[in-house]
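Can't paste images in this forum, so I'm doing it all in text. The chain is below; anyone willing to post the predicted structure tokens underneath?
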Amino acid sequence: MRYFIEFSYNGKNYFGYQIQPDAVSVQEELEKALSTILREEIKTTGAGRTDTGVHAKKIFAHFDTDKELDDQLPRKLNSFLPPDISIKRIFPVKDDFHARFDATYRTYEYYISLEKNPFTQESAWQHWKRSLDVNAMNEACKILFEYEDFTSFAKLKTDNKTNICKIYKAEWEQNGSELKFTVSANRFLRNMVRAIVGTMVEIGTGKLKPEDLRKVIEDKNRNAAGTSAPGHGLYLVDVGYDFK
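Text version of the structure:
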């Protein structure tokens, strides 16, 4: 049978979700715990690959096993896993349902601290030395909806077959000294959100104008966009599926 896992993690201590040589990953920790408890080799497929230091408030993965799983498995896994990975639930799905390819949308949030804050040093980008024009950044957000080819925001030398994405939502919200960017799309390229945020911050500081974003996108060149924002301010917050 195929099972889905809903879980969350703090990415500070990990080189992203996906297993890679000579680096600690969330997938490695998850598979080690599952394999130990179920006493068989378990391989998982995640909803996506997060970069080093990036967090996930809500993410899914699937795995296959012939064993019937009891209701206590999430509790057992949480007892075995490190404190920065938390299992929310495990449930059966159709045998061909896929955590990555059957996702209908993904939503990320990026947090910026507009004042020096010792309590968010590891959870938000500390951007307090220069002010940001949030209205200009939101003007630029509207331009994102005009395009689907986001090559300029894609990490170079990846195995992407296409750089086409459909963005459904993009907006900045300020709550006191906290600035939050929410972006939702059918899919994201590696490093895409961090590259968008870095470019938006250049617009917020006045280095670029909102309308300059069109040329950045149309150049289809990573060097045309801004420097990637730090990974520790980024959170995957939702992945959508049609479980019917």
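The chain has two domains: 2-101, 104-240. The radius of gyration is 19 Å.
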